[in-house]
Amino acid sequence: MAGAATLGGASSGSVTIPRGRSALTRIENVAKNRLDNGDLAIGVGLRQARTVDIAKLMKTAGFDWLFIDQEHSSSSLDNAADISCAAQDAGITPIVRVPGIEHYHAAKALDGGAQGIVVPHVDSVDVAEAMVQHSRYPPIGKRSVVGRLPQLDFASTPLGEAAAAVNASTLLILMIESAQAIDDAEKIARVPGVDVLLVGANDLSMELGIPGDLDHALMVEALSKVVAACRSAGIHPGLGGVYRQDLIERYVDMGFRMILAGSDLSLMLDAGKASASAIRSLPVG
After folding, report:
1. pLDDT in tens, 99-143
2. For residue 161, which of 35, 17, 37 has the smallest C-alpha distance?
3. Angle of the 77-90 helix axis to the 103-111 helix axis, nearest 10
4. How many CB atoms lie within 10 A of CB 127?
5. Out of 72, 103, 216, 236, which one is annotated catalytic?
6. 154 three-state secondary structure
7. Which of 26, 173, 212, 269 is most buried, judging by how many CB atoms fall within 10 Å of its CB?
8. 121 is catalytic
9. What is the C-alpha separation between 220 and 214, in angstroms, rounded?
């Protein structure tokens, strides 16, 4: 491959292999591996966290992926990139929920180290196709090339190999949050380059006129349609916004595999309330 173009470096006939990797063309994505093996991939939302140690903390807690929220959080893109780089090294998959469908939202998150993006409010095939174009390198999409990616440890890599490796290891997750999206779920799921349809249960319940009623018959019917659409297309169904253990068990049994299990905010509040309540209940002599 002498003289071949490289991603972020002078032309080279060799591939630099960093310690701990057998080849640069293989990028580990913990959540994607679990999904592809038919296992649950359990994620936690980040709204409050601003420091990189959250990656190791949540890995130790038992989560497979981080849902780094850029839609409903004041956290900056710099925070998301810092946490993404730390997460990959910690062995937990960094996934950024981008705030919109513009190409630069996807590009900046992925160039910063995210191993996947979540796109909110995807209601049509047109939006799904556009996000594939923004998120995948050719020949699948039209993502622009940047020098030396954190997913490749910033090593110089032959361009074709790098693009193929990043495409193969990146999760494109589309949020289904409206009645229109439910109606078109099968078409959206069949867009080449899409990996997961993730139901945003709370927004969907609002759209269906059953706010917060996450075991309503209309919700169950909608979720069943998403699972069926994903199975038919050979992609993965995901679920966010459902945190009651009995409902999670019900919907996992239905077929959901990528589960958002809570957030740093909810975990801190729940644990904090329990601790404060237990101590306040002590008798004072």
Report:
1. 999 999 999 999 999 999 999 999 999 999 999 999 999 999 999
2. 17
3. 40
4. 17
5. 72
6. coil
7. 173
8. no
9. 8
Tens-place pLDDT, residues 149-205: 999 999 888 999 999 999 999 999 999 999 999 999 999 999 999 999 999 999 999
Q: Distance between CA atoms of 201 and 31, rounded to whole angstroms?
A: 21
Core vs surface per residue 171-205: b (16+ CB within 10 A) or e:
bbbbbbbbeebbebbbebbbbebbbbbbbbbebbb
Domains, the chain, with CATH or none: 25-173+240-276 (3.20.20.60)
In order of 114, 141, 155, 157, the CA distances from 145 in angstroms are 15, 11, 14, 12
Is beta strand 157-158 parallel, antiparallel or unpaired with respect to 116-119?
Answer: unpaired
Backbone torsions φ then ψ of 121, nearest 5 degrees: 55, 55
Question: What torsion, rounded to 10 degrees, do the Cα atoms 97, 100, 104, 107 define?
Answer: 30
Residue 57 CA: distances (Å) to CA of 7, 72, 80, 163, 267: 32, 22, 16, 31, 13
| Cβ 83 vs Cβ 68: under 8 Å | yes
